[in-house]
Design goal:
The complex is a heterodimer of chains A (about 325) and B (about 110). Chain A has 13 helices and 2 strands; from the N terminus they run ααααααααααββααα. Chain A has about 325 residues and is mostly helical. In chain A, a hairpin with a 4-residue loop joins strand 1 and strand 2. Chain A starts with a helix and ends with a helix. Chain B is elongated, with a radius of gyration of 23 Å. The chains are: A mainly alpha (about 325), B alpha+beta (about 110). The structure holds fe (ii) ion (FE2) (2 copies). The site of one fe (ii) ion has 6 residues of chain A, from helix 4 and helix 7.
Chain lengths: ~325, ~110
């Protein structure tokens, strides 16, 4: 019976059909999705922190309004994704508890500090750019609620990348000092951005199953290559230099060759030893704890309002 | 569903008493039906409307919002899909293409 269900499921998914919340699905499929979607949600939420750092210090009112809108979008992305994840039978509070206890992971990129305003440019351009590259194929993911959430997210992301590139463009065309600031931000964010696509294909054990289930469409290395190919000309346009001496156009493959990624750094950061891991988690936990009274008050208010409505209903009925 | 995990020490007890889940439906503009867009948590219906405004209509995607407590929705079961929908399968005469008419009959 179970075997029949599984065969039917595999064939169904392979035929590009969608799975919806109440449909039968293998346990491993559900678990993979819960892990991936919740990690994705956590990344959106923690991802607000590096940029939130610059809202009060944006160089103009216009930039401030843009940055606030972008950060608010990221909160929205987190909420779409938690909502999608809950359709798999998990409770949002449990997911958040897993983030706060350190059990759940989020994208390692958000454990790097934002040292200058130029980092807002580099993040929008590179980090949101890499996120888009990862997210666009997910719009066709086999799990309906995840795919639909991704469609919303992708619609909103393109402004994120464009505003970041525009910050870089303005700085790169500014004073010598501003240009140096843009170059410095690029130097610091380039390699961590390449790591956003995850470990190399020969060291990515779950990829094959995710591909078979149509959760994943392209391998980590394929997406990374696509990102490099797209970004190199953009850096040239900015007049900035990518911090990789091995970066060269390969006439034969029609792609850019690039240098070795320091995977030991990736491992270090993902396992909790990046420059800001501790600070990020502490900020999230404090936000949760300090917001407890708001949640309690809203709950009490809702109960009072309901009681008042009930009482009014009873009088009317009497 | 994964087993419940003990919360880290610094979580207050009230956090386990979470706000209920609301399903959100948005009418994108007058003349169209409300469409399901996702869900969110809120203490009550009023708050659910306010939250839905911020979460799902940041770019004027909506002209009207419905919020429905998720546990008030009764859904057909996927296991009964065949039972429910197959009876319509052999009633091809419900579709206009079932009827072959002479070419001279236009616009029918
Ligand atoms: Fe996002
Ligand atoms: Fe973004």
């Amino acid at each position: 019976m179970e075997m029949d269900l599984l065969q039917h499921f595999d064939a169904y998914v392979a035929a590009e059909k969608k799975i919806e919340p109440k449909d039968w699905m293998p346990d491993a499929y559900r678990k993979t999705l819960v892990r991936q979607i919740s990690q994705h949600a956590h990344s959106e939420i923690v991802g607000m922190l590096p940029e939130g750092n610059w809202i009060s210090r944006a160089p103009s009112l216009k930039r401030k309004a843009i940055l606030m809108a972008k950060v608010q979008d990221e909160a929205g992305h987190g909420l779409y994704l938690y909502s999608a994840c809950e359709t798999l039978g998990v409770e949002r509070d449990d997911l958040i508890a897993d983030l706060h206890s350190g059990k759940a992971k989020y994208s390692s990129i958000f454990n790097y500090p934002t040292l200058t305003w130029a980092d807002m440019g580099a993040i929008g351009w590179l980090v949101d750019g890499a996120a888009i590259m990862n997210q666009v194929p997910l719009c066709k993911c086999s799990y309906g609620p995840y795919a639909r959430a991704m469609v919303r997210v992708c619609k909103e992301e393109s402004f994120h990348q464009r505003q970041g590139f525009q910050i870089m463009l303005t700085l790169a065309n500014g004073t010598e000092e501003q240009k140096a600031m843009a170059q410095d931000a690029l130097n610091r964010w380039w390699w961590p951005s390449l790591m956003m696509f995850g470990p190399p294909d020969d060291n990515s054990p779950n990829s094959a199953q995710s591909m078979a289930w149509n959760i994943k469409r392209f391998s980590n290395d394929e997406l990374r290559q696509k990102f490099v190919d797209l970004t190199v000309p953009q850096a040239e346009l900015l007049g900035l230099t990518l911090p990789d001496p091995d970066l060269t156009w390969n006439e034969e493959t029609g792609h850019y060759d690039f240098g070795e990624i320091d995977w030991s750094e990736f491992q270090r950061v993902i396992s909790g030893h990046g420059p800001c891991n501790k600070e990020r988690l502490e900020t999230r936990r404090n936000a949760w704890d300090n917001g407890a009274w708001v949640r309690e008050a809203a709950q009490a208010h809702a109960e009072k309002r309901a009681a008042r409505r009930d009482a009014a209903g009873e009088t009317a009925a009497a | 569903m994964p087993p419940a995990k003990p919360l880290p020490l610094n979580f207050s007890v009230v956090d386990k008493k979470h706000w209920p889940l609301w399903e959100i439906f948005i009418r994108s503009r007058q003349g169209l039906s409300h469409r399901h867009v996702g869900s969110l948590h809120a203490a009550d219906a009023e708050m659910a409307v306010e939250n839905a405004r911020d979460v799902y209509t940041r770019r004027q995607e909506g002209a009207s919002i419905w919020v429905v407590p998720a546990d008030s929705i009764t859904a057909s079961s996927p296991d009964e899909r065949d039972l429910l929908f197959d009876p319509a399968n052999d009633k091809v005469y419900r579709h206009p293409t079932f009827y072959d008419l002479p070419d001279e009959v236009k616009h029918m």
